[in-house]
Write a structure and sequence with these properties.
Layout lengths: L2 H23 L6 E2 L11 E6 L5 E7 L10 E5 L3 E2 L5 H9 L3 E5 L13 H16 L9 E6 L1 H12 L4 E5 L5 H8 L5 H4 L6 H5 L6 E6 L7 H10 L3 E7 L7 H4 L2 H10 L3
Parallel strand pairs: 1-5, 4-6, 4-7, 7-8, 8-9, 9-10
Antiparallel strand pairs: 2-3, 3-6
Length: about 270
């Protein structure tokens, strides 16, 4: 019986050590940047974005490639992995439909300095919006925000402060703690998280036509969380449930469901 207190103390120490380790390395479990510089792309204009805290971020401005120029720009906020080169198929699909597209990399991604955090990504997307609004032929009232997964959280926060002409959220989660708890149910995720990304709360304050696109077989973001975000949207236009699609299914990465959603909320 005397050993029981010792065992309890040992288990408490192990638990404390585990929680402390998770606290320290948690952002490595959230952000998965491809830090390599993506270089240049034929037909795209290289842009440098300047954040409010002094970082310079790389970006591409991709003009319409089809016969029609809608005179609508799409600001793409990427998910938590890769860099902007991985979003080229999406940009090409949007450009073919007559949209101007801005692809950019967050801090710590695509050769950029810095490390990603919720506050940092909010600064980064504001720098992207500011640079886009300065481009010839781009009007602030003809900009659509498109966010994928974590990027959906980033553009929702931006849209609450600076409403776009339209908002498309691809595979959004309700908040980061909810999706973290789904993957790590044995951890007190809400207690530990530094970055919150409260999408479901913020979307209720967004005054813009909104389309939510998600896959019914998503193994990263539970589909019910995307449906909850749609239910909370102040100006929901439509919900697009792609049957059988997982989180990175081609139909969601650069497919017609996403392109059509952008066209639906874009001004005429």
């Amino acid at each position: 019986m005397r050993t029981l207190p010792r065992v309890a103390v040992a288990l408490a120490l192990v638990g404390a050590l585990l929680l402390g380790t998770v606290w320290l390395v948690q952002r490595r479990l959230i952000y998965f940047p491809d830090r390599s510089a993506p270089g240049s792309v034929p037909g795209a204009r290289d842009l440098s974005l300047r954040t409010s805290d002094g970082l310079t971020l790389g970006a591409w401005l991709i003009p319409p490639s089809g016969a029609r120029d809608r005179r609508v720009a799409v600001l793409v906020a990427p998910g938590n992995a890769g860099n902007r080169r991985h979003r080229l198929p999406l940009a090409a699909a949007l450009a073919a439909e007559g949209f101007t597209v801005l692809l950019f990399d967050y801090r710590g991604y695509g050769g950029n300095a810095g490390s990603p955090t919720e506050d940092g990504l909010a600064r980064d997307v504001r720098a992207a919006r500011g640079a886009l609004s300065e481009q010839p032929g781009v009007s602030a009232d003809r900009v659509v925000y498109l966010g994928e997964s974590l990027g959906a959280a980033v553009v929702t926060e931006l849209a609450a402060a600076h409403p776009p002409a339209g908002l498309v959220l691809r595979s959004p989660f309700t908040d980061l703690a909810a999706v973290g708890s789904a993957h790590y149910p044995w951890l007190p995720v809400r207690l530990l998280l530094k970055d919150r990304f409260a999408v479901a709360d913020r979307i209720a304050r967004v005054d813009a036509p909104t389309v939510v696109v998600y896959g019914t077989a998503d193994t990263i973001v539970p589909p019910e969380q995307s449906r909850t975000v749609a239910d909370r949207a102040a100006r929901l236009t439509r919900v697009v449930a792609v049957d059988g699609a997982d989180h990175n299914d081609p139909s969601l990465v650069a497919g017609q469901p996403v392109v059509s959603a952008v066209a639906e909320v874009a001004p005429a």
